[in-house]
Amino acid sequence: xxxxxxxxxxxxxxxxxxxxxxxxxxxxxxxxxxxxxxxxxxxxxxxxxxxxxxxxxxxxxxxxxxxxxxx
Length: 71
Hints:
The chain is an all-alpha fold and 71 residues long. The protein has 1 helix and no strands. It has one helix spanning 3-70. The longest helix is centred in the middle third of the chain and has 68 residues, at 3-70. It starts with a helix and ends with a helix. The relative contact order is 0.05.
């Protein structure tokens, strides 16, 4: 195999490697965005759950006070 063919083969391998690396970087960026969106959704859901718990606790306290006043 002459040197020119070897250089062409190496260049093709390097180009393929670069394309794969670029593809992997794009995939990693997409996964990072997806992960961030999921984290934000979980945080919103957790906040809603905390608010719902606080509302339930308040309703129970009010109910207890009403029972005391009535009973």
